[in-house]
Design a protein that fits this description.
The complex is a heterodimer. Chain A is an all-alpha fold. Chain A is built from 19 helices and two strands. Chain A has helices at residues 2-14, 17-35, 41-47, 57-82, 91-139, 144-161, 166-180, 206-224, 244-265, 273-286, 299-322, 328-339, 346-351, 353-374, 378-383, 389-408, 411-429, 435-457, 469-492, and strands at 183-184, 191-192. A two-stranded antiparallel ribbon of chain A has the order 1-2. In chain A, a hairpin with a 6-residue loop joins strand 1 (183-184) and strand 2 (191-192). In chain A, helix 5 crosses helix 9 (244-265) and helix 5 runs parallel beside helix 11. The longest helix of chain A has 49 residues, at 91-139. Chain A is globular, with a radius of gyration of 22 Å. Chain B is built from five helices and no strands. Classes of the chains: A mainly alpha, B mainly alpha. The interface between A and B is large, with 77 and 83 residues.
Amino acid sequence: MDTLNQLIAGFGIALQPMNLLWALIGCALGTAVGVLPGIGPALTIALLMPLTAKVAPASAFIMFAGILYGAMYGGSTTSILLNTPGESGSVMTALEGNRMARSGRGAAALATAAVGSFVAGTLGTLALTFLAPAIADLAFVFGPEDYFALMVLAFCSVSAVMGKSTLRGLIALFVGLALGSIGIDAQTGQPRMTFGHPELLDGIAFTVVLVALFAIGEGLYLASRHGDAPSVINPLQGGNRMTRADWARSWKPWLRGTLLGFPIGSLPAGGTEIPTFLSYTLERRLSKHPQEFGHGAIEGVAGPEAANNAAAAGMLVPLLTLGLPSTATAAVLLAAFQNYGLQPGPMLFTTNPQLLWGLIASLYIGNVILLVLNLPLVGLWVRLLLIPRPYIYAGIVVFALVGVWGLSTSWMDLALLFGLGLLGYVARSCGFPIAPALIGLILGPQAEIQLRRALAVSQGDFTVLVSTPISIGLLACAGCALLLPALLRWRRSGGNPVYRWSR
Amino acid sequence: MPRRWWLGLGVVALGAVWLWGARSIASTTHFIGLGPSAMITAVGAGLVVLGLLLGWQEWHGLTVPVDDEEGAGPFSGRRFALAVAGIALPLVAMAPLGFPITAMGTFALVARAFGSRRLLLDLLIGAVLGALLWWLFSKLGVHLGKFLPLVR
């Protein structure tokens, strides 16, 4: 009952006219960046980080939540109509969705994607509403050694899952850890790795790293390899709305997608790729019309789209209850919390309930706004792609300058943007994933604090790290996350680990 | 597939910087548990080991494919240089010339890197965008420096 009361109070905050306006801005912005290539929710929220200095926390997070959900909706629009997934979670949608659009059923595909996103987003938010407080209560028994083990698990699983090679994931993670260790040591007040620059005493701003690695690195990569072929716009085929048969074939995939997406999304390094892929495979197997798969089966749009949005809701569970980001977007949200001097975790539910419940309530409202924004206005969003590509990317770089220069009008930030942007280019062109670096950057300092706290309590005895069942379990999972992919590859290649990538 | 063993070398070098930096942090012996330099040392050592592994992998041709967008062309040094110039411009221009003019230059350079041919139009769009953003963000309370520092 307490949860319901809190949620109603949350709606009281989210429904204030100003906050509704922020939610609307967030949803519109999110849909736009979901449609546009080269810019996703993580980057958008990072670029808006300077606003956190001026806007009230509840309003800012309501807007950020709108961006997060809106990007999921927008991403599906472009993958269906243009076969260009804006987000990694919409890759599966493109498979069947674009086929449907080509055979004149684009409107039905868009409708099942939007309604499925709405259903999954709402159910996922419902699960978040009732699950999060319970997990937060559970997290109170976590000692510093358990938190440290949890973060090690996040490090290992993110490095192993993101990207194609665990080694490259680990290197990205360690680069992030290295960048995160710059600045004043929180426990002794000593400057570390600042090389005598006072600007570095506060550490490197998360926004600068994210914008440099994502926006600048990707921009340099695409510019240097940009073909002169103009992008082709496939105009929206009118076609039919969803028929009764479409509804009948869609509702089960929506629910199954939600069931897959939410739990996987809430795991460390769950992300949206795995649940959407699983959902697609599952629908293909369960479908009564398997021959339609590959030629525009509506189940193949409904399932992955639902899984995608449910995973986005699931991602918020570890973030809000444990302060543990599992994706780049969650890492930015964590950085935004830190900008306000807030630490997501079990304490936040007691110290700042208005903010948290306002945020959760705004997720319900955001889903409604997005359904309204997306069903009738799809044609408008697709027009965004008529902006010539040079202007899209030049605009992104100028926005990046706003986001970085607006932080503290510091020359050092611009220099870091430049240097880390070149690093991002190298990472992009040599196949290094970015997300582990971001997770390392933001979680590294916290992992260090928990580790040192645990060791201080135990008087320097390292066995404290494996002294509780929770920490042992989490560290075992971390070991599995690192070793399992390599072992599987080794078995598949018939016991010859050396030449697994050479073909 | 090119063998980029130098990537491993770069990672080792970064690790070496961190190991070297850890030595200049005064150790606080009165502190129970780990001191402030332990994490730096651990990260540096980790980078060195991972860098060596990466170098070994690349040397033996165990590299990973990179996802390319559809229709991606070959590497063009001219376009790359234009884009890099666009990102380097703020380093020299932001403080003396202010945000809108810097945004104009960066916009035009990056747009040209992506194949735009209309320099005047690019400059115009960049200037309008820069001025608009400066105005919008100052309304929202975010300070982007003086509009035109040269004009007093």
